[in-house]
Amino acid sequence: MFATFFGNAVAFLLLLRNGYTTPVVEYNKGLRYEEYIVEHEISTVNARNSALTIDVQSIVAPSGCKECTSEEKRYCLGSDFINDHCCCDRRYHEVLPFIPHTCYSGNQLCEPVMECDKYRRLRTCCCDILVLKKWKARFQNSSCKTVGGTAYMIIMIVSSHIVYIFVNYFIT
């Protein structure tokens, strides 16, 4: 054991003396990391409560809005819409309380897909009602599944506990 250790130590020292060294990793000194903080957040519970209480008929498109194209509808229902919301709207007045989302603030984070003025026009003309309908339907459908899922979970917990008691009673 000692001979193996001694032999390895001598080989290592010889390698060092002959100019073979372990590589040194140099970090890029110009590389900077940006810290992001949560600018605002709408939880799923808060979004569900908002979506289920807001009446779809209460959202009226302003005058001058044209019919939404399929491309505009796709934008509204996609992730680019939330990205632009986080870049263009600020927390002072949350305009999408019915969508669960988190927006972060940071200097280099925000790059809107669409110009903010176009985003705001499209949001008020097309997106608000489309997105509210989508999330309202999703939350209404999920509430039914949650009850069944909860009942299933309770049955599974109780049955696993009964099996545990049964096994411990007959094995010990």
Automatic annotation (TrEMBL):
Q: Which Pfam families match?
A: CCC (PF26644)
State whether keyword Flavoprotein applies: no
Q: Where are the transmembrane segments?
A: 151-171
**InterPro entries recorded for this chain?**
CCC (IPR058250)
Write the record's keywords in alphabetical order, separated by commas. Membrane, Signal, Transmembrane, Transmembrane helix
Extent of the signal sequence? 1-21
Domain of life, per lineage: Eukaryota
What range(s) does the CCC domain occupy?
37-136
Protein name per Swiss-Prot or TrEMBL:
CCC domain-containing protein
State the organism of origin.
Answer: Exocentrus adspersus
